[in-house]
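U., I forgot to send this yesterday:
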Amino acid sequence: MEYKKPLIGTNESEDIEMAAERVTVYDASPEYKPESENKNNIRRYNRPRTGSSLFHRKPILILTIIAVLSLITIISFTIWAIFIKKIETTITTTASTSVVSTTKTTMLATSTITTTTMLTTSTSSHTITMNEPKWDKWKQNAITVAGGNGEGQKLNQFRRPRGIFIDQKKNIFIADVENHRIVEWKYNAKEGQIIAGGNGQGNRMDQLSYPQAVIIDQQNHSIIIADLSNRRVIQWLNQNQQILIDNIACDGLAIDKDGFIYVSDYKKNEVRRWKMGEYKNEGIVVAGGNGQGNQLNQLYDPTYLFVDKDQSIYVTDWDNYRVMKWIKDAKEGKIVAGGNGQGKNLNQLSDPAGVIVNDLGQIYVADSGNDRIMRWCEGKEEGEIVVGGNGEGIQSNQLYSPRGLSFDDEGNLYVVDRGNHRVQKFEIIL
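Result:
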């Protein structure tokens, strides 16, 4: 610290004697050494023997203030450092927890949700692949892609259409029931073309009588038809016909990935399975077959069918107002939609028709009597309305006794709007 000489006075004319009388013992103290000669020692300030001038207390006051400020600064920095450390610890802990939680969530999502969902239709011999979120949604106003020109027998018309099949090129095949024919509508076509029947109602090999369902065997491109009133399942291949199964009240058809054919017999209240090419036997009962009833091992007027990749069978149990699932080789089924009597509540169905299921276990049902399409998840007590449900009508957001259902490979939903003699396409919302 720089040493300052004591003040001699503010008046330069003051004489030396008067100034000498004001010199203190501090100024003449033999203990003082300049800082340059006393670097290793703590400097001491000696009080004057007489007087209490502020001049003599000022250095001590300054040092005290500096010491206090230094102490406060040190304490403040210490507290701030502790506070910052706690914040960093909290952030680190939170981040670690978040990472662990995110990792667990990601692992759970990876193990339980399939981002690429395989969809198959009950009338399809191929697997349709599409990217499907957990809960798909569709535009509520549909596009008419077939028919829609009133009831009639022209090539741009239908009369009570029912079954539907869509191939990989988005071509639509329709069982045109009361015109006794199968019609194919090419993608974006303005009218269809007859590919089976169309020769009037009859039981000749080139005729059909109230065909209910149609599937296409992709392996040989043959057309397989449930020819209801003729009590036969008939195959058309290049305009040549052959009866595959005879003497059966066939209502619904399905084919699985291995080529097995499934047929619902609404009079015997059962579903039977045949191996492709082996139709001489009576087939194997795979659902129902225990008489008419509402027990879990019974069916009452089974109609539409869907078979998944595990060969589980979904059956529309029409007069029991429910959809039943029969696992392969099971002795009884379980209710997966409806089953609470006829009605319009979300846990009920009325005249259920077309059914289709995706790999996430979501079951889509044409709730014909309520003019809506429902989605049910297995194990849930009620379903939800997917499209329709706006009352019976002809508007683009309405249906009238919907029947067959199908998806294309993009996930668009097709509905056979039977009462309006048309096929409606509900586009998926991506």
